[in-house]
Amino acid sequence: MRYSGKLMPFGKYTAPAVAIFQSGMGRLRKILIPFAGLVLAFWFYSAREDFKPEMLKGKRVIVTGASSGIGEQMAYHLAQMGSHLLITARTEAKLQKVVARCLELGAASARHVSGSMEDTAFAEHVVKEAEELLGGLDMLILNHIGSSYFHYFNGDVGHVRKLLETNFLSYVAMTVSALPMLKESGGSIVVVSSMAGKVGFPFTVPYSATKFALDGFFSSLRQEFALQNTNISITLCILGFINTDSAMKAAADVVLIPPAPKEECALEIIKGGALRQREVYYTYATIKFSLLLRDWAADLLDYLIRREYNLENLEKK
Ligand SMILES: NC(=O)C1=CN([C@@H]2O[C@H](COP(=O)(O)OP(=O)(O)OC[C@H]3O[C@@H](n4cnc5c(N)ncnc54)[C@H](OP(=O)(O)O)[C@@H]3O)[C@@H](O)[C@H]2O)C=CC1
Ligand SMILES: CC(C)CCC[C@@H](C)[C@H]1CC[C@H]2[C@@H]3C(=O)C=C4C[C@@H](O)CC[C@]4(C)[C@H]3CC[C@]12C
């Protein structure tokens, strides 16, 4: 029987179909309704506190790698929220400009220290400066990275060591030096990492090693804080491709995935830190989905990633 558009959409199967549907629905309802209730109850009781910009007002914050990119944008957001800022990177002239802009935007105070994080003594010096200039610390945002190459691994072991010092050991050194102040304030450590710190991507071998190391160190430390009732939160930020100048220059021709905006990325990191979240994913849906694939279909994820690379453009580099 053809569909007439009137009363009998399933023709002679209507009555049995409806009966099966109804009994199916009956059974489903018995399961679905309590299940939905459980989900709702769980959601209601675990509903997180909402982010409010006032959470950062008057807070004393260090941002590393704040002369450009995501770090610079984080400094501007924090300034608008009324924080006390201590920013750092190597390039003095850029830091001066960022400090001036932060003051215009409403920072409670803004200062800078310049130097290289290749040297752990400098990392410790920055924390000491916070103690002297701000009298304490509420949030330590670890964001800087040393420069690397976006290409096949060239076998340079010295470069891997140097990058581990800049991208990993300096994070460890700053954390160790800042612990007394963070314990006193019940503060937060925010660690900026990457999808390349959770999954293997081509052309980021040394960089990826440093980002995986951060996950190991800070996830383990978080467990010890819980055992010892240490009231310091650790937020690990898992970022995808972001449109900072340096990332665009290095990877835009080769990576076919569109980059996400650095301004919004910076805000999501600050929100996650203020809410004391364990991890931040930006952008959320693509990263959560990729991590699900990583755990259940790793070869498929690896294949899908390789498909997003344009190797012809790599050769032109
Ligand atoms: N952009 C992206 O696609 C992604 C970025 N991320 C992460 O986000 C964070 C920020 O990245 P992004 O904003 O793109 O990077 P940028 O290259 O824009 O900024 C890097 C910052 O680190 C500073 N820096 C570089 N070398 C050193 C050094 N030896 N000592 C101290 N500071 C140094 C730079 O300033 P100066 O040169 O003046 O020292 C700059 O302020 C990083 O942790 C990165 O891993 C994660 C995933 C993707
Ligand atoms: C959901 C995911 C499958 C999305 C894939 C995202 C891929 C394309 C993202 C994830 C991590 C990103 C790299 C990164 O973390 C940091 C840098 C440093 C920068 O200076 C040069 C660019 C580089 C190498 C990014 C290149 C793009 C990467 C591989």
List the helices and strands and how they pair.
Layout: H1 14-46, E1 60-64, H2 69-80, E2 84-89, H3 92-105, E3 109-114, H4 120-134, E4 139-142, H5 157-185, E5 188-194, H6 205-227, E6 233-239, H7 245-251, H8 262-274, E7 279-282, H9 284-296, H10 298-307, H11 311-316
Parallel strand pairs: 1-2, 1-4, 2-3, 4-5, 5-6, 6-7
Helix pairs in contact: 2-3, 2-8, 4-5, 5-6, 9-10
Description:
Helix content is 55%, strand content 12%. The chain is α/β, with parallel strands linked by helices and 317 residues long. Strands 3-2-1-4-5-6-7 form a seven-stranded parallel beta sheet, with helices on both faces. α2 (69-80) packs across α8, α4 packs parallel to α5 and α5 packs parallel to α6. The longest helix has 33 residues, at 14-46. The protein starts with 13 loop residues before the first helix and ends with a helix. The structure holds NADPH dihydro-nicotinamide-adenine-dinucleotide phosphate and (3beta,8alpha,9beta)-3-hydroxycholest-5-en-7-one.
